[in-house]
Amino acid sequence: MTVKFTVIGAGKVGTALARLLVRAGYEFVGAASRSLESARAACAFAGAGTATVDGAELAGAADLVFITTPDDVIRAVCDELAGSRAFSPGSVVAHCSGALPSTILEAAREAGAHVGGMHPMQSFATAEQAVHILPGSCCCIEGDPQAVPVLEGVARALEARVLTIATEDKPLYHAAGCVASNYLVALENAALDLARAAGIDRAEALRSLLPLIRGTVSNLEAVGIPQALTGPIARGDVETVRRHVEAIEARTPELMALYRVLGRETVKVALAKGTLGREAAAELRRLLGPG
Fold it and tell me: Which helix (H) or strand (E) holds 55?
């Protein structure tokens, strides 16, 4: 039986989901959005579906409802739809937030639906980009026992990897994604600040660092952690780290706390790799301070 689905919220994620699931053989009931123009654009992008500003009728006709609005209005939208008796008993209602648990959809559960969350662990700039990079990405799924298998089927239809977690673990999962993606951008900004202090233009520094970043990511994929770790701490080169500390304290003291925290974490990884001796590790920890 063909699964009928709708998206409530015609942003990047909802629009990309619509196109990919239509491509995979799901029947797209349509898209609802506060802006009729956005809903129409989502349906045009998917090549199917009815566009509307009222999601209640669409939700009632669907086996699977994705609420793909901004995080801060997911609960309110769900409550509004449930108040309109929009959800069919036995249907699945899901959101795509990485930060929020499926329990914010309690109003849908009380209406007889099964609730869940399906979060693509990926960063989307546009719907077009999402269509290209979502396949092969990881989709994290949690929720009611009846909803999880349905969402796992959706993830497989998207050609995504399935990761299932407990609902109560959602905040830690999302924090992991933020550290891996958002904090990486902030970390590279700090690297550019260090390069600028050395007299290197930021644009040139980024061009110079990008091959190193790509190489590191490639190593992570090829050999994993801790084997991908290289550099002075992995080698136990205390004097090089000492020179770093002295230079940063003198020229960019605002980055010293970050360098120390990351250095202490790197000592842990180097010990796990087995290339850092205990004596050198103790000296590095004294140099990098308590933590």
Answer: helix 55-60
